[in-house]
Design a protein that fits this description.
Distance between the termini of chain B: 23 Å
Oligomer: heterodimer
Distance between the termini of chain A: 34 Å
Helix content of chain B: over 70%
Helix content of chain A: over 70%
Strand content of chain A: under 5%
Structural class of chain A: mainly alpha
Largest sheet of chain A: none
Number of domains of chain A: 1
Order of helices and strands of chain B: HHHHHHHH
Order of helices and strands of chain A: HHHHHH
Number of strands of chain A: 0
Radius of gyration of chain A: 20 Å
Chain lengths: 226, 222
């Protein structure tokens, strides 16, 4: 059942990705101000939105673990954090490439860039903590607590960075203000759908690995007991 | 047992043990001074530049010293299984946490108040004029550092490489707090602070104090 779901999500995501790339590169017109590089927005912004969605899943799974003490929730949390961190990296990398072309520099300490980088570092800490703890219950509880602390930090980081640096060269918000031209909406929304589908497939693969790992762990313990 | 009385007793016990040995106090004061000296070699600055980086410099030193202080908070209870006894005691978990955090707060505050004049002296920065507003910023940010730090000191107490893991987890979380404290301190030392920015420190303190109190029960039993 799970394997089928992985295949369905993966194939659907890849097919949509190909379709979306066709639309991004060959159908929609070049931006008057930015030239061809603006097309990166259809990767850049969906990656950030997908990452946030997976972080939200991780924090919910973490709270669920603390309440239920069921290791399936811990596996979901770590899988979601891993995939979310990867999408944050995609977001940072594509943003950096765009910055090199548009601004001439790879990195500016702009509000949104900095907050994404902080997010990346926070969850990197989460992934570093896990291998340092050997006892499974301890590891799961610690990671759950860290995931909750990290998630609470996100709005405060945004608040802090706005205070630190209001000047920015980063393009202003176009989604909330309705500034995105109608022709750009389909590839943009498809971009989000693609990443959510592929990300979910990856989370399912990771869940499978985690449950095998737990099984191996318990078998090893049994052998030690004998 | 009344929770607040228990918290008070634990804070008093921690401060008394620390006062008898002064191990983390001595270590972090001398560490803070070494960092201040190192920074003066790292950057060759004129007066304006010194003023411009003053807040950032001061808070980096405080953050480093803070990690040293909170690292010992729960680790101190490991020998003789004191931690287990503390958890088994009638004191509620939040009282254990608040007591320990308060003890760290006073220790770190002491370290900061000792290194502030040294900082002023080495870098030729006048801080006495804005001392009371500076004290407010220092107190709020120090509470933020100690509340998150003590929580993570409890989380990492049984982890291998504890001394390494704590800063790796702690500093990214503290970034917004440190940004706020640095901005405010630089502003105060330059005489152009926007005191309403203090909201950020208050929000951070309130959010993390309540989160830590809510989660401490899970943290202490692991």
């Amino acid at each position: 059942m799970r394997e089928k779901a992985i295949y369905v999500l993966g194939i659907l995501g890849t097919a949509l990705l190909v379709l979306n790339f066709y639309r991004i590169f060959l159908v929609i017109p070049i931006d008057a101000l930015q030239g061809a590089i603006y097309r990166i927005i259809f990767i850049h912004v969906p990656a950030a939105i997908t990452a946030d969605a997976f972080y939200a899943v991780a924090v919910i799974a973490s709270i669920a673990f603390l309440i239920r003490k069921n290791f399936a929730w811990d596996s979901l949390a770590v899988s979601a954090v891993e995939v979310g961190t990867m999408f944050t990296l995609v977001n940072l990398a594509t943003g950096s490439i765009w910055g090199r072309v548009e601004w001439g520099i790879w990195w500016a300490w702009d509000a949104r860039m900095t907050s994404q980088l902080m997010l990346f570092l926070l969850y990197l800490g989460y992934l570093l903590l896990r291998p340092a703890v050997t006892e499974p219950t301890q590891r799961a509880t610690m990671s759950a607590i860290l995931a909750i602390f990290a998630f609470a930090d996100i709005p405060i980081v945004t608040m802090a960075i706005r205070l630190h640096n209001v000047r920015t060269q980063h393009p202003g918000p176009v989604l909330e203000t309705g500034g995105l031209a109608p022709v750009y909406w389909p590839p943009f929304l498809t971009g989000i759908a693609v990443f959510l589908l592929l990300g979910s497939a990856m989370v399912l693969v990771r869940l499978h690995q985690e449950s095998s790992r737990r099984e191996i762990d318990s078998l090893r313990r049994e052998i030690h007991a004998i | 047992m009344n929770g607040l009385a228990a918290a008070f007793a634990i804070a008093r016990k921690d401060l008394r043990t620390e006062w008898r040995t002064k191990e983390s106090l001595n270590a972090s004061v001398s560490f803070a001074i070494v960092i201040l000296v190192l920074f003066s070699f790292a950057f060759d600055l004129d007066r304006e530049e010194r003023l411009a980086i003053s807040g950032g410099l001061l808070w980096l030193v405080y953050a480093f010293a803070g990690a040293l202080i909170v690292n010992r908070s729960f680790a101190r209870e490991l020998p003789n299984d004191c931690l287990d006894i503390l958890i088994a005691s009638p004191a509620p978990p939040w009282a254990v946490f608040i007591g320990k955090a308060a003890a760290c707060f006073f220790l770190l505050l002491l370290v900061e108040l000792i290194s502030l004049p040294v900082f002023g002296l080495f870098y030729n920065i006048r801080w006495i004029g804005s001392f009371f507003s500076l004290l407010l910023v220092i107190a709020l940010a120090t509470w933020g550092i100690t509340v998150v730090g003590t929580a993570f000191s409890a989380v990492t107490v049984n982890v291998r490489l504890r001394e390494l893991m704590l800063p790796v987890l702690l500093y990214p979380l503290l970034i917004p707090l440190l940004i706020g404290a640095m901005e405010l301190t630089t502003g105060l030392l330059n005489g152009n602070a926007v005191l309403s920015d203090i909201r950020l420190l208050i929000v951070f303190d309130v959010v993390y104090t309540s989160l830590a109190i809510m989660l401490i029960e899970f943290i202490l039993v692991i």
